[in-house]
Design a protein that fits this description.
The protein has 148 residues and is mostly beta strands. It contains one helix and ten strands.
């Protein structure tokens, strides 16, 4: 791996490396039943260790969602960048930070807060969605358990 400007930032991404079983739950609301999420996530270093390739293959209710995401570190702005593409033809961009073990992902209408357990073999947290232009509401709980 080549020398990077911010070794700590890249080191913190190492906890993601590997294959994960993914499970989650979108709670019932407005008469809609709860929706279970199950699948797998994989994280691997690419491009000489400067970026992570995150692939997700999950079933959300009856729908299959496949996503590819590139995660990097923006040294100038001091945050991670996350560009994703999915099998519905959608793409999006988020930024991420980690402070005292708490990961925060921020997008235009989605945000996440969570972290790793002490052994770094479970990553879990809560996704929220912007309901209108100012109100964040609970979207789903998610938990990734490391396979290898």
């Amino acid at each position: 791996m080549m020398h990077k400007k911010n070794e700590l930032a890249y080191h913190q991404l190492n906890n993601f490396i590997g294959s994960w079983n993914t499970e989650g739950l979108i709670p019932s609301s407005n008469g809609r039943p709860e929706i279970k999420i199950i699948g797998t996530d994989n994280y691997n270093w690419i491009v000489d260790g400067f970026f992570l390739l995150h692939t997700a293959d999950v079933t959300i209710g009856n729908d299959n969602s496949k996503t590819h995401e590139i995660i990097g570190y923006d040294d100038l702005n001091g945050h991670y960048t996350m560009q994703h593409y999915n099998n519905n033809g959608n793409s999006g961009f988020m930024t991420a930070t980690v402070n005292d073990g708490l990961w925060t992902f921020n997008g235009d209408s989605l945000r996440f807060k969570g972290g790793f357990n002490e052994k770094s073999n479970v990553f879990s947290g809560v996704w929220e969605q912007l309901a209108d232009s100012k109100t964040w509401t609970h979207l789903m709980n998610i938990k990734l358990s490391k396979i290898k």
